[in-house]
Write a structure and sequence with these properties.
Blueprint: E1 3-4, H1 8-11, H2 14-25, E2 32-36, E3 39-42, E4 51-55, E5 58-63, H3 67-70, H4 76-98, H5 114-120, H6 123-136, H7 138-148, H8 157-171, H9 181-203, H10 207-221, H11 232-249, H12 255-269, H13 279-293, H14 297-310, H15 318-332, H16 335-343, H17 349-362, H18 365-376, H19 381-401, H20 404-418, H21 421-429, H22 433-449, H23 454-466, H24 470-480, H25 483-488, H26 490-515, H27 519-534, H28 538-551, H29 556-561
Antiparallel strand pairs: 1-5, 2-3, 3-4, 4-5
């Protein structure tokens, strides 16, 4: 019986509808696809593809290839698809109401636009216009000063940038000193102009000019973060500090400029204004590189210890200083400090992530192994990502050094986590033949006990095929109800037992076609029937074509393929 999309809440079971709604709102539903006219599909994040056939806003039929859908029951994937379709149709309806008819207007031979006006007007006229417009429009005047401030010469290059920054900030601040959304956009455009000038100065090796701008930019903009509700200003500060780092890394700055930068870093990094959301972390690459080059790491260490012991650091700032302490401990070979900080950083996601990056970059195997051990004790998703990064770095190192034992250990862990055959092949290459059968059994056991994602299902089939366990592979295809498994390994399976292979193949083929209503099912039929014909199963192929024509005469796309 058909029903309207507007009746979903009353027609569907409450728990199925709610689960489908939660699935869509969480972003797991994936993208909606219009497979053909009135036939919709959804590529969900867990690999299943529900389909729904509609007549206008009436639901005619739905299907899904998940376990519940194959059993003929209505699943939350189908509910998610219908909810998504309803939202799309409602959105289309709203847009159509708002759309206005556009009348055809005659087009002049030369359009009146900025490019053509600048081409036609004389330079003197344009300058007069800019001068007059700047008198009447404060924001334009500020934009003009910001864009061309680098052209002015002064005894202290920083003064001109301070003047412009003060003017821009004052113009975009209200009486309460809060910065509203529109003003924030104008402010960001002005700041981008200044950052653009700094970048050009660095490209031209004018490092002193760039530093003069950036050293005024950062302390002027940081206090504004607390006066606006978005992160746009924070991004500009990070960009400015990255440009400072580029100056530090360049081989050309003069010793006098480096001394000036070192003093600036020391004075600024301890200021209270940098207390929020890991702003100090943006200082660390530059100050660490600069002090390392100048042989002043002990001076930096003393500064760091003083801040950690006497700085009264808040919960948002302390991890930044701990990260700097960790870098210094790694550089100075303080093993006990490094080990202790790794063990005690697990509760702070930011710190642990940064520590992982530092350990991988250092190439210290002993430290990386300890980090991996600590990370594996956690089931948090963000920690699993760090596990993968650390394991990958250790594996690359083990392969370079041809450490077979470490390769074998790491590869098995990585294969079971990622379900990728390249790791399985590496594992086989570096395992002793006598131990291989035992290893395979343990791999299959762990894969079958793991959550059955597409990756784990595919990995089990790959392992069974690689081990020539063809009887088990056929049983597994039947267990998964998957004709695709047989399609992938049909040559090897038919050599093992042709009749059993194609009998099972035919059953799974029919089941798949019954559950896929549109182009996906039609494409599947064409692909698999061509394989049957190519492998000499012509009689079976002809019989299947006759069966499909009799069983599904109204499925236009399928009939076209046949």
């Amino acid at each position: 019986m058909s029903y309207s999309l507007s009746e979903l809440e009353s027609r569907l079971e409450e728990d199925v509808f709610n689960e489908g709604l939660e699935w869509v709102d969480s972003g797991n539903g994936g993208s909606l696809m219009e497979l053909e006219k009135n036939l919709f599909g959804l590529a969900s994040s867990d690999g299943f593809e529900p389909e729904a056939l509609l007549s206008g806003t009436k639901v005619v039929k739905t299907a899904c290839d998940c376990g519940k859908g194959r059993a003929g029951d209505f699943c939350f994937h189908q509910a998610a698809l219908l909810i998504t379709v309803r939202r799309k149709l409602n959105a289309d309806k709203s847009r159509n109401k708002l759309r206005k008819k556009v009348t055809n207007r005659p087009v002049s031979k030369k359009k009146i636009n900025t490019a053509n006006i600048l081409e036609l007007a004389e330079d003197k006229e344009i300058k007069n216009f800019v001068r007059e417009y700047a008198r009447r429009n404060r924001q334009f005047s500020l934009a003009l000063r910001t864009r061309f401030v680098h052209l002015f010469e002064s005894e202290d290059a920083g003064d001109k940038y301070s003047t412009v920054l003060d003017a821009v900030i004052k113009a975009n601040s209200g009486r309460t000193h809060a910065i509203k959304s529109t003003a924030n956009k104008r402010l960001c455009r002005s700041l981008d102009d200044l950052l653009y000038q700094a970048e050009n100065s660095i490209a031209d090796n004018q490092f002193a000019e760039a530093f003069a701008l950036l050293s005024r930019f950062v302390p002027s903009v940081v206090p504004l973060i607390w006066r606006t509700s978005n992160d746009e200003l924070r991004k500009r500060i990070s960009t400015a500090l990255e440009l400072m780092n580029r100056i530090v890394r360049s081989p050309n700055p003069s010793p006098e400029l480096k001394d000036g930068m070192a003093e600036w870093y020391k004075e600024e990094i301890v200021k209270f204004k940098y207390r929020g959301s890991h702003l100090v972390a943006d200082f660390i690459p530059g100050i660490f590189t600069l002090f390392k080059e100048e042989g002043k790491l002990n001076e930096l260490l003393a500064l760091c210890l003083d801040r950690l012991e006497n700085g009264g650091l808040g919960v948002n700032v302390r991890p930044d200083w701990l990260l700097l302490r960790f870098k210094l401990a790694l550089e100075n070979g303080e093993k006990e400090v490094v080990d202790s900080m790794i063990r005690n950083s697990g509760e702070n996601r930011f710190l642990l992530s940064k520590i992982t990056e530092e350990v991988i970059a250092s190439g210290n195997l002993e430290t990386a192994s300890l980090l991996l051990e600590i990370l594996k004790q956690s089931s948090k998703e963000e920690h699993l990502i760090l596990v993968a990064k650390t394991e990958s770095a250790l594996l690359k190192n083990a392969i370079r050094s041809k450490d077979k034992k470490r390769i074998r250990s790491l590869t098995k862990d990585i294969f079971l986590r990622n379900k990728e055959m390249k790791f399985f092949e590496l594992l086989k290459e570096y395992s002793a033949p006598s131990a291989w059968e035992k290893t395979v059994k343990s791999i299959l056991k762990e894969l079958k006990e793991s959550r059955q994602t597409w990756a784990s299902r595919s990995a089990i089939a790959e392992v069974l095929n690689a081990e020539k366990k063809y009887s088990d592979l056929l049983d597994y295809a039947k267990e998964l109800n998957s004709a695709e498994v047989i399609f992938r390994y049909v040559s090897a399976l038919s050599s093992f037992d042709r009749k059993r292979t194609f009998d099972l193949y035919e059953d799974l083929f029919k089941d798949h076609i019954s559950r896929h209503l549109g182009p996906q099912g039609a494409e599947f039929a064409g692909r698999h029937l061509m394989l049957w014909d190519a492998m000499g199963e012509r009689k079976r192929c002809r019989e299947m074509v006759a069966y499909l024509k009799e069983e599904y005469p109204n499925r236009g796309t399928l009939m076209g393929v046949l």
